[in-house]
Write a structure and sequence with these properties.
Blueprint: E1 10-14, E2 18-25, E3 28-35, H1 43-65, E4 74-78, E5 83-87, H2 94-99, H3 105-124, E6 127-128, E7 137-144, E8 149-156, E9 163-164, H4 168-185, H5 192-202, H6 207-222
Antiparallel strand pairs: 1-2, 2-3, 3-5, 4-5, 6-9, 7-8
Helix pairs in contact: 3-5, 4-6
Family: Belongs to the protein kinase superfamily. BUD32 family.
Catalytic activity: L-threonyl-[protein] + ATP = O-phospho-L-threonyl-[protein] + ADP + H(+); L-seryl-[protein] + ATP = O-phospho-L-seryl-[protein] + ADP + H(+)
Enzyme class: transferase
Length: about 220
Amino acid sequence: MTQTSEKKEQYLSIGAEATLEKRKILGKNIVVKTRVVKGYRNPLLDAPLRRERTSHEAKMLHAVKKWGVTTPTIYLVEPHTSTIYMEYVDAPRLKHVLLDTKIKNTEKMRLCNELGKIIAIFHKHHLIHGDLTTSNVLVRRNKNFKNKKTINELVMIDFGLSTYSHKIEDEAVDLVNLKKTFTATHSTLNEGWGEIQKGYLENGGEKKVLKQMSEVESRIRYA
């Protein structure tokens, strides 16, 4: 695919773990995510670790679709180059939508509620996202076939740190990490975190996880 396809690169992100490129292949925009070589690691360990994490992330992106969560469609996985070719979602990040003063507060609260519901789905299936932030959620305009109206749909991305766990502690930590970044980034969105919790409980999230959050936060506070 990389040798025979039309290639026009545009870096979307260059991170410590991976690069994200926007490419046009056969007339279609796609995202190419490649895990970078870690020079400090033994090459005999680094290559298989990057292959494993690439395959794992692809499996996670595909798995959550079966649960009704929207993620970018995967077109190709190349474990030997630690690369995932996936759908390019032309949409802003939730972070920027929630910071946009032109967007109504009622819509922002709806999106926060929807995010809570998605996290509840993850936890019901014992998936820990590992990097829940409003930067790892896209907001795409999408046609709702039930009422034939166009609505904002959340698209979840970046499952590179995701794991499976049956521990309430891990689910609580997942939410604590989101709360820390959410309250810091969206401090003026007073009801936002409350709507995330509300959506979480409405869609099967357990109260004991929210209770465990308080315990986790208290340990962090006094550590």
